[in-house]
Amino acid sequence: MYYLLFILYFILSGVLLTKSRFIASTGLSKKEILCLFVLKLGAGFVYLRWILFAYPGTNDYEILNGYGQEEYAILLDNPLQFIKSVFHSHYAEYGNFFGSFHSFWNDLRVNIIAKFLGIANIFTQGNIFLNTLFFCSFSFFAHMALFKIFHSIYPQKKWPILLTTLAIPSLLYASTLPGKDSVTFILLCFACYSLHLLLKQGFSFKHFVSFIVSAILLLLIRNFVFLLLVPGFVAWIWTEKKRITTGKIFVLVYAFIFILIAMSAGWQNPLSPYEIIKAKQKDFAALEGTTTISMDTLQPGIQSMAWQSLKSVNRVIMRPYLWESYSSPLIFPALEMICIQILLLIFLFYGNKGALFKSPFIYFSLFFSISILFFIGFIVPNLGAINRYRSIYLPFLLTPFSCVIPWKKLPILKYINF
Questions:
Q1: DSSP assignment of 59-95, as one string?
Q2: Cβ atoms within 10 A of the Cβ of 407, count?
Q3: What's the CA gap between 95 and 11, in Å, rounded?
Q4: Rounded Cα gap, residues 272 and 111, in angstroms
Q5: What is the pLDDT of residue 414?
Q6: pLDDT tens, position by position, 150-178
Q7: CA nearest neighbour of 50 among 39, 62, 38
Q8: Model pTM?
Q9: What whole-number distance in Å separates Cα of residue 197 and Cα of residue 110?
């Protein structure tokens, strides 16, 4: 039965994607849309099959899918309880908003996605591969939203944009499988797309609601992503509205945030930025994993933050090293990082730096992605988790660089007829 449902839903997804006005407005042909969708779905299925084999019953995706089946049972038996349980806390209070354990807000992140899976299970009967097909269809719209923003800035760079906004290997599966990463990617892309249209086309109730809903859900699903988005959005809106020197505004805003975090080390308040980062670092250190690495504890002061920043860059841009991933699942992330490093080197030597910052969104894209990669490097001591977390932010970092590289003029490629 599941095979028949898969064929049916796959055909319906293909029709929906090719007939959608939103996706058709990208200028992609129906053949290109279907090929990209099959690539994304295929990569998700390959990774899902492997993780179900390697970590049966203990991987996040299978556990979350199980929660969705429980929610589906509640939905059928008691629909009112299905709704009311969203607001119920198993703890004595509703505080500890940024906590990773023993927090209603931490549980809510999983609860929201489990509720969505419970509804999806009406059609999928709890099959994790069919649920993956549903998530893949939704997240494909997010890829297209991000493509449309970058393509409006670099209209002649269709394929570099497609490759970096959709075809990065780790992004393909992280944004496809049912989980917090794919939901975060969807909300992030649509928040950016809605704000982009609001700034370019003026106020629209539809886009305003889309922006607000995406931002609120992002706050509930990944509150630290929302916090790191705020300075980027503020600087982006500021430069679009006031037409001040864009680079200076972004530097000032992010310098202020960095100084604020360093100064907050002396605040005796659990909501101080320093305490939030330190608590997150401690929470992740308590988790065990097969690819866990040693990491220093963050200390008060700018000197400690600067030193940790350098180590953070190493963890998110350099690791896993190829030699530490031999005969392990990290071999593919290691190869991906080598390709990313080569791309960055090509940009440094051959990229047209003057054409890079063509829009305030590019400043936002680079400042936001670098800041959140820093944050991931600060708090996550597990190489496998780092690879999954950073994947959904790589398009914001790599797409601008890939768009200003004269690919046809590179010494190795200039004799190839594209």
A1: SHHHHHHHHHHHHHHHHHH-HHHHHHGGG--SSS-S-
A2: 16
A3: 46
A4: 27
A5: 61
A6: 999 999 999 999 999 999 999 999 999 99
A7: 62
A8: 0.91
A9: 30
CB contact at 8 A, 214 and 194: yes
- H/E element holding 124? helix 104-124
Instruction: Look up tokens 């922006």; give the residue.
Output: 211
Reply yes or no: is the peptide bond before residue 320 cis, omega within 30 of 0. yes
Place of tokens 């002061």: 301
CA 220 to the chain's CA centroid = 15
Per residue in 53-98, pLDDT (tens digit) is: 888 888 889 999 999 999 999 999 988 888 888 877 666 566 666 6
Please count the CA atoms within 13 angstroms of the CA of 18 that sit on its side-chain side. 16
Alpha helices in 202-243 (DSSP H): 205-221, 223-242
Structure tokens at 55: 């970590």
**What CA–CA distance (Å, rounded) separates 72 from 301?**
49
pLDDT grade, residue 144 (50/70/90)? very high
CA distance 20 to 176: 19
Mean pLDDT of the chain: 86
